[in-house]
Every structure is written in structure tokens, then in C-alpha cells.
């Protein structure tokens, strides 16, 4: 996958999804229907997908100069496969509604995709809504014998009059095309594998978000792509540390690996509604961006917002050579190093104690690694309104490894709890160093979707 950046950005995504069994319209030779994502838990069935509706309805969808920024949905066809708009229009609308669902359900913030509809249809019915939302467009520049690239799609839409900067175009290709995001003459997210995860993945790319991957050694990436998967995962940046944070819209995150310097927060995209707390969602974090990422603090210094006590001392991990462990983690920049000393238990804690509610479940996550060996546990320390300790909840004792692993502890806040403090604890009698990053405190309020209402480990 590559990214080309000047005024424009283009991201090419390879791979086809397994097609669901579905009758192909008469005369068609191409079946675009993809496989809807099922992780971390299944999306609702078609009949229960919430209908988002239209944010704006300009009289002429090609004349949107004074219209609210929005997403325009296009059904793209060409002579080689024919026009199957009537057969697919409601299916495409369902996919767009699923995209909106997965955005809203990714967090406990109410946020949606702004969609543009055309006038002249009864949007009180699903058929009328689908016809208003999805506009058919014949792609004159399409390759009727081979694969059609994003440049042809963008140029054709521009020539047809879909040429305004306040629109992002979702193009469902009913021919051999590509799952791609491209900003040229216009900004288009395209796919010939029709499902919500693939198209949301491409829409996210239009906001200058690259494929962020787990990495500690610079220029070496694991296979864990932490951007929303176009294959089976629907949640968006579940740890709020890569490109999306609706709870702290002023926070910006590196969208690609070192040495790229682009920063973004998808939550501020003009084609999305302003996020509003609170509802029920998958990943509900109570920490600040600095407490999750350690990005605002320079190497060698003491990490802002963290404190240490007992046996050990901490610092922002010093940078190392490309062949050694460095300050770089998720996005290639910062991590925290705890230098454990044997004379006492060592505690690395977030200094601030987030407010919590007694009787509700919370889950603390942290990623950890070591270049040698050592044992740690995660701790939730519960405090009352007078800042007196009530009790603690500890995880198992974890033997750290040389690879970055996510560990967690989950517990229900005891009676009388007002706040909680998060700590990584190293038992006494050890001398070693470990690195930590990507902390998260999940308020487990999405009950019914996962057994304990908490997000899954990742």
C-alpha cells in the first residue's frame, strides 16, 4: 500500500473479499457483494440496520457550493456490465447505513456520517430514501475489459459535474474496479467489494490516514493493521491513539510510521457530525491523549501526567538506532521506560484519577515489552470522594516478552468509589527495564455486545 501526498492523496488497497451468495441481475457478469464484518461482534441484520437518513438535500446534487459538507453516494456502472441500479440501490443504502452504524457504535459518542440526498423521492420509505441517497452514474472512462482505476472514476465524476470540495464521493463500482481512496480532481472512495468495512476503510483514507501498524523497531511492521480492517473488523481506532478521538477533538495523532509527520483526528472530518457524549458504544475511554500515547513529552524526560514510586525510576524512552529498541511504538515516536530496582515494589501510575461510578465495570489496558525478562501486574486502585483508598483490583502476574503485548485487568468499582488510579506494578526483588505505551481505561457500558460489556483485547 502506498500513499502519495502533495495536494492530493491516493491509497491503493489490494485484496478481494469473499462474496456472499446472491442472485446476479439478468445480464450481469459481475457480483460485487462482499462479506460484512463480524468482529468484534456481529453487525445487526439488514432488517434492523438503523436508517440514518439524509443530512442535506440539494435540489441539484451537482450544485452543492453552499451546501453542508457531506458524503455523496454513487452507483457506478459501464456498458461492459450494464446498469443494475434498480437491483442494487437498496443494498447500497443498507451498506451506507451500516457504515454509519459502525462509526456510531465504535465509541460512546454519538457521531454520524453526513449524507447528501437528491430531491424528488419520498424518503419516508426505505426505497425512496435509497433512491434519493444513491445516484447512478455511467463511467464513460471505465475499462470495459480490465480493471478501472481511481483516476478514471475521479475524472469522470468531475467531468459529469460532481466537482465540489465539500463532497467526499463513495463510489460503488458495478464492474472490475479497485478498493481505493484517491483525491485528485475530486475525492473518491471506491470499491468493487461491497460491504461496510471496506468502504468505511476507504472513506477514512480520504482524511489522510495511512495504514498504521504496530511497530517498535523503525521500518519494521507486524501484520497487525490497526486501521479499521476492510476484512472483518468494524471498530474505529479502539484505543484512540492512531487517528480518531471523539472525546478530545483537539488531540492529533501521527497517521503513519516514522519518519512521516502527518497528524490528524478523524473525529473532526467535516463530513462527520460533531461528536456528542454519551451513548452506548464499543470503546469508551476515560484517559487523555497524552495519558494514552506519551507523545507530548521529549525523550529522556519524565512523562507528563505519570508518576513513579517504590523501586524504580521512569523516563520517556531514549531514541535508539534502527536496529535497537527505541522510543518508537505505535506510530513510531514515544514510549515510557520503567527501570525496575529490586529493593521494593515499583509503581508507574497515571497521576490523575479519572472519575468513575460505583457498581459499573471498568477495564484497564496497557501494552508492555522488555528486552530481558521480568514480571508485572496491572492495578486498579479505587478511591472515595475524600481521596481515601477503598481497595485495589489486580490482574494476574504477567511475564513480559520481547514483543509488544496488550495486557488488561477488569473489575467493578466497589461501593463508595468516586475515582480510580491506574498503575503497572513490578514486584520487589527484580532488576530489569520494561517499556509501556497505549494505556486505556474502558468504561464497559456496551452491555449485550460482549460478555462483560468491555472492548476485547487487541
Brief characterization of the structure:
This protein has 458 residues and is α+β, with helices and mostly antiparallel strands. It is built from five helices and 23 strands. The protein folds into two domains: 203 residues, no CATH class; 155 residues, Galactose-binding domain-like (Jelly Rolls), CATH 2.60.120.260.
Q: How many DSSP-defined strands?
A: 23
| Overall mean confidence score, pLDDT | 86
What is the succession of H and E elements?
Answer: EEEHEEHEHEEEHEEEHEEEEEEEEEEE
Q: Given the structure, what is the number of helices?
A: 5
Shape: elongated
Distance between the termini: 23 Å
User: What portion of residues belong to β-strands?
Assistant: 25-35%
Task: Give a structural overview.
With 458 residues, the protein is an alpha+beta fold. It has two domains: 3-205, no CATH class; 289-443, Jelly Rolls (Sandwich). Helix content is 12%, strand content 27%. The chain is built from five helices and 23 strands. It has helices at residues 85-105, 126-133, 150-160, 196-205, 289-293; strands spanning 3-5, 9-13, 70-77, 109-110, 115-116, 134-138, 167-173, 179-183, 187-191, 253-254, 263-264, 276-277, 306-310, 312-316, 336-340, 346-350, 361-370, 375-383, 389-394, 398-399, 405-412, 419-426, 432-443. Strands 1, 2, 3, 5, 6, 7, 8 and 9 form an eight-stranded mixed beta sheet that branches. A hairpin with a 5-residue loop joins β18 and β19 (389-394). α1 packs across α2 and α1 crosses α4 (196-205).
Task: Give the topology, please.
Layout: E1 3-5, E2 9-13, E3 70-77, H1 85-105, E4 109-110, E5 115-116, H2 126-133, E6 134-138, H3 150-160, E7 167-173, E8 179-183, E9 187-191, H4 196-205, E10 253-254, E11 263-264, E12 276-277, H5 289-293, E13 306-310, E14 312-316, E15 336-340, E16 346-350, E17 361-370, E18 375-383, E19 389-394, E20 398-399, E21 405-412, E22 419-426, E23 432-443
Parallel strand pairs: 3-5, 3-6, 3-7, 7-9
Antiparallel strand pairs: 1-2, 2-8, 4-12, 8-9, 10-11, 13-16, 14-15, 15-23, 16-22, 17-21, 17-23, 18-19, 18-20, 18-22
Helix pairs in contact: 1-2, 1-4
Amino acid at each position: 500500500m502506498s500513499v502519495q501526498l502533495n495536494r492530493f492523496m491516493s491509497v491503493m488497497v489490494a485484496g478481494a473479499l469473499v462474496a456472499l451468495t446472491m442472485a446476479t441481475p439478468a445480464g450481469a457478469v459481475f457480483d460485487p457483494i462482499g462479506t460484512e464484518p463480524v468482529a468484534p461482534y456481529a453487525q445487526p441484520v439488514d432488517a434492523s440496520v438503523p436508517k440514518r437518513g439524509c443530512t442535506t438535500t440539494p435540489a441539484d446534487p451537482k450544485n452543492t457550493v453552499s451546501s453542508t459538507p457531506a458524503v455523496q453516494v454513487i452507483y457506478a456502472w459501464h456498458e461492459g456490465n450494464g446498469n443494475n441500479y434498480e437491483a442494487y440501490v437498496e443494498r447500497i443504502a443498507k451498506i451506507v447505513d451500516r457504515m454509519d452504524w459502525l462509526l456510531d457504535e465504535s465509541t460512546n459518542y454519538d457521531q454520524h456520517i453526513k449524507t447528501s440526498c437528491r430531491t424528488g423521492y419520498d424518503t419516508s420509505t426505505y426505497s425512496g430514501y435509497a433512491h434519493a441517497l444513491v445516484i447512478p452514474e455511467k463511467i464513460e472512462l471505465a475499462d470495459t475489459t480490465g480493471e478501472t482505476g481511481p483516476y478514471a472514476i475521479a475524472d469522470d465524476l468531475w467531468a459529469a459535474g460532481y466537482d465540489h470540495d465539500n463532497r467526499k464521493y463513495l463510489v460503488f463500482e458495478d464492474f472490475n474496479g479497485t478498493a481505493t481512496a484517491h483525491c485528485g480532481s475530486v475525492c473518491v472512495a471506491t470499491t468493487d467489494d461491497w460491504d461496510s468495512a471496506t468502504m468505511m476503510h476507504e472513506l477514512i483514507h480520504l482524511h489522510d490516514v495511512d495504514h498504521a501498524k504496530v511497530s517498535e523497531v523503525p521500518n519494521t511492521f507486524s501484520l497487525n493493521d490497526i486501521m479499521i480492517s476492510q476484512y472483518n473488523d468494524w471498530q474505529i481506532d479502539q484505543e484512540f491513539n492512531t487517528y480518531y478521538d471523539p472525546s478530545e477533538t483537539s488531540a492529533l495523532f501521527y497517521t503513519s510510521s516514522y519518519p512521516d509527520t502527518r497528524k490528524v483526528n478523524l473525529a473532526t472530518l467535516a463530513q462527520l457530525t460533531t461528536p456528542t457524549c454519551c451513548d452506548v458504544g464499543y470503546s469508551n475511554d476515560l484517559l487523555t491523549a497524552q495519558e494514552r500515547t506519551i507523545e507530548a513529552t521529549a525523550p529522556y524526560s519524565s512523562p507528563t501526567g505519570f508518576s513513579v514510586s517504590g523501586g524504580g525510576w521512569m523516563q520517556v524512552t531514549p531514541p535508539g538506532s534502527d536496529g535497537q529498541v527505541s522510543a518508537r511504538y505505535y506510530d513510531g515516536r514515544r514510549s515510557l521506560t520503567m527501570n525496575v530496582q529490586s529493593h521494593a515494589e515499583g509503581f508507574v501510575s497515571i497521576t490523575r484519577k479519572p472519575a468513575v461510578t460505583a457498581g459499573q465495570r471498568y477495564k484497564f489496558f496497557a501494552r508492555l515489552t522488555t528486552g530481558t525478562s521480568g514480571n508485572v501486574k496491572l492495578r486498579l486502585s479505587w478511591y472515595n470522594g475524600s481521596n481515601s483508598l477503598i481497595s485495589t483490583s489486580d490482574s494476574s502476574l504477567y511475564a513480559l516478552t520481547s514483543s509488544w503485548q496488550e495486557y488488561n485487568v477488569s473489575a467493578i468499582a466497589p461501593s463508595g468509589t468516586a475515582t480510580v488510579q491506574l498503575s503497572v506494578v513490578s514486584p520487589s526483588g527484580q532488576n530489569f527495564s520494561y517499556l509501556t505505551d497505549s494505556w486505556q481505561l474502558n468504561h464497559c457500558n456496551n452491555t449485550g455486545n460482549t460478555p462483560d460489556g468491555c472492548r476485547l483485547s487487541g
